[in-house]
Amino acid sequence: MEDETLVKRAAAGDRRSFEILIRRHAGAIVNYLRRFLPDPDDAEDAAQDVFLLAWRNLDRFDPGLGFFKNWLFRIATNTGLNEIKRRDRAALREEAAAPLIHRERDNQHDRQETREIGDILQPALQSLPAGERQIVLLSYYHDLTYRQISHILEIPIGTVKSRMHKAMARLRDSLRPVKEGELQ
Amino acid sequence: MKHPTLAELTDLERGELPIERAREIRDHLETCETCRQTWEEVQEAAGNLLAWEDEPVSTTFVTSTISAIEEAERVLAPAGRGFGPAWIRRIPIAAAAVLVSLLFQAFVWNPLESPRSFRAIFDLTPEVAALSDGTAIPDTILVLTVGSDGTVTTEILGEQSGELDELIPLIIERSGERDFRAVLLLGSDPEGSVTIDRHDLEPLLSGLGIEKVTAGAGVVLIAGRGDIVARIGVPIEYVVVRAHEVGVDSVRSIVADRLEARAATLTSDRVALVLTRADSLHTSGEFAIEMRYDRGEERPQVQVIRPRLEVRSRIESTQSLLDSLQTPSRLIITMNDEGRIITSWAVLDLEEFRDMAGRLTADPGDLSILVLIPEGEEEREALLLEILEEIGGDKITIRRIKKDGSR
């Protein structure tokens, strides 16, 4: 059954239909948030918020404006950004520099220890500004076009492009060690 | 042929280049060693990204999410007539009057984006949340009270009070354990409006890590005649109104309900109500109103006695607009009869608006401006657009929305 049909039923109060939608899209949303949030362990909690908000706002979903999944990504992006802002504010109040240095050292340590691609990509992605990171994630992991991303994030397509270009320039630099053999 | 830029190679890798240009670049890569090396690096980065596989979601995710929804629904189950769930009506309604100031712009502008700390309020109260006293205010809100002599007090300073600019460093210093997301400014000046405005708050917002003031950025804006505490002498009741969901009539009804509940102990016959959403599409334009009610009536008759501002532009078709407003970086403006610019958080003179908009365009790629202008007001529209062009040139996106919601 198509998402749009399930959404209509769910909006009419059919929780079972919404459960199917959750099962269908949980993987995409959770993994998007795992890569978007500084701490991947927060992803499932945040994803739960995403589905709660979606459920509460189903009547606002307009299939004429895009796919349900893209609407979920929009909510996930807002949820993720709020979580990042919350963390940033908290971090500002701590001794800012020291923990960051430790975190970077930890990251380097992790890279040497695990040599798994996620351990390399996670810090590389986290080093990007959030606005660039979300575009890379939506483009590469969810295979969305610049136009679709523009619609989801409600920003001009030119902004999507410029952020993507900056992000890939940064990633190209930060992933060079991978090319040089760090990743096995 | 000109060497392709890194941006073009990125677009090529993503399949976003026009076919003709993509063909040219591919041909070029056959012969240009330097570009081919860059292209390989782009592909390498892309390949690494694509090689990162999804991890499975925990097996309990779906069931726990459904349980959370059921719990939310249980709490939200309607409990009879009223504007909120039963728990609101059980609260001893502390105040006769209502100072609605409020709000979290993100909250109002984008219900999908409500900060987690406010989730409890948001979820429990689809229309209105009432907090009976100061202790119920989320600890993410810093409450500042401005006295009639202009001095400021706030609970994190204990008994200390003083001029805002003197207190700001102290407030920031003592805010270390709190995660303030918003500042609520209450006035207690019986003669006039609160004299502290957004500009005065900026050093504080900055020091607390609350981001720049744009609609949706999570900053509270606040205004209002502040005679509630002084004249009524009871704790203030704070009311959060999602302004885009309640019209003036329903706000009037809400206020009447509150007054009715407290009729026996009221000592004032005046209620100040301030809605911060000048552009609030369902409020028929009142930006700030003062209400009077007659305690002699069986049910308080709430009457608007002083519309402080009238926004003429009323958009009838709101849904499409509301849908399009869900972004933290969109600004709605209109202009009133006096030629003042009305934004979602303030009414500004042209110079103030120039100053504000100039700062907002620091990150122009992220800002778009919606201009609401009544039909037949071409002169006003032209003036406004001229100002915007002067401020932002081609750096900002300007969208004009007609009365029927079309663009």
Q: Would you mind describing this structure in some detail?
A:
- The complex is a heterodimer of chains A (184) and B (407).
- By secondary structure, chain A is mainly alpha-helical.
- Chain A has two domains: 93 residues, Rna Polymerase Sigma Factor, Chain: A (Orthogonal Bundle); 69 residues, Arc Repressor Mutant, subunit A (Orthogonal Bundle).
- Helix content of chain A is 78%, strand content 0%.
- Chain A is globular and about 50 Å long.
- Chain B has 407 residues and is α/β, with parallel strands linked by helices.
- Chain B folds into three domains: 46 residues, no CATH class; 226 residues, no CATH class; 83 residues.
- Chain B is built from 14 helices and 15 strands.
- The two termini of chain B are 41 Å apart.
- At the A-B interface, helix 2, helix 3, helix 4, helix 6 and helix 7 of A face helix 1, helix 3 and helix 4 of B.
Task: Summarize the topology.
The complex is a heterodimer of chains A (184) and B (407).
Chain A: H1 3-11, H2 15-36, H3 43-56, H4 68-93, H5 97-114, H6 117-126, H7 130-140, H8 146-153, H9 157-174, H10 176-182
Chain B: H1 6-13, H2 19-31, H3 33-51, H4 61-76, H5 86-90, E1 98-99, H6 105-109, H7 119-124, E2 128-131, E3 141-146, E4 152-154, E5 161-162, H8 164-174, E6 182-187, H9 198-207, H10 228-232, E7 237-241, H11 248-261, E8 270-274, E9 288-293, E10 302-307, H12 319-324, E11 330-335, E12 341-342, E13 347-348, H13 350-360, E14 368-372, H14 378-392, E15 397-401
Parallel strand pairs in B: 1-7, 3-6, 11-14, 14-15
Antiparallel strand pairs in B: 2-7, 3-4, 4-5, 8-9, 9-10, 11-12, 12-13
Helix pairs in contact in B: 1-3, 2-3, 8-9, 13-14
Range of helix content of chain B: 25-40%
Determine the structural class of chain A based on helices, strands and strand pairing.
mainly alpha
Major beta sheet summary of chain B: 5 strands, mixed
Please give the count of helices of chain A. Answer: 10
What do we call the CATH topology of the largest domain in chain A? Rna Polymerase Sigma Factor, Chain: A
Compute the average pLDDT of chain B. 54
Radius of gyration of chain B: 26 Å
Beta-strand percent range of chain A: under 5%
Q: Per the principal axes of the C-alpha atoms, what is the gross shape of chain B?
A: extended
- What is the CA–CA distance across the termini of chain B? 41 Å
Helix fraction of chain A, binned, reads over 70%
* Number of DSSP helical runs of chain B: 14
State the end-to-end CA separation of chain A: 42 Å
The fraction of residues in strands of chain B falls at 15-25%
Detail the poorly predicted runs of chain A. 95-115
Unreliable residue runs of chain B: 76-136, 188-195, 212-248, 265-293, 300-330, 360-367
Question: Most extensive interface, residues per chain?
Answer: A-B, 69 and 60 residues
For the secondary structure, the number of strands of chain B is 15
Q: What string, H for helix and E for strand, traces the elements of chain B in order?
A: HHHHHEHHEEEEHEHHEHEEEHEEEHEHE
- Number of domain units of chain A: 2
